Amino acid sequence: MAKWIVSFIAIWSVSFAAIAEPQKILMMVPDDFMWPEYGVPRAAFEKAGFAVFVAGKSKDVLNPDKRNKAEYPDSRPVKPDMTFDDVKLPLDGYDALVFVGGNGAWHDFFPNPKVHQILSSSMKEPIVVGLICASTGVLAMAGNFDGKS
Fold it and tell me: Using CB atoms within 10 A of its CB, is residue 129 exposed (0-12), middle (13-18) or buried (19+)?
């Protein structure tokens, strides 16, 4: 998985090379997230000079998946800057939107209409949208709450 994340970041940084103004990235993070899917990209974004903001289901701390604590001893809770409901649409002011994966995607992203609106709206804007691992499922779920569409 780490190789995929590094590849994603390398491709991402090339796509931003032509932008002259400072970039802002919004990371959508579920509770019970996979630490390397948050920590590795965020560190790379910040190292490259991007301003990173975090949105969560609530403003309570978001906890990484505890099952991976031994493998990722640096993993720690993350305090969101805003809630999903606080995200204004269209996503003006942000150059990229990243959905972090993990088991939390199932309960924080998939059944959440606001998350679906954020994704759907952003796909129509001139920004980069990235979905990591389990969060990619929201592409199939967006606006499809009954599972029939």
Answer: middle
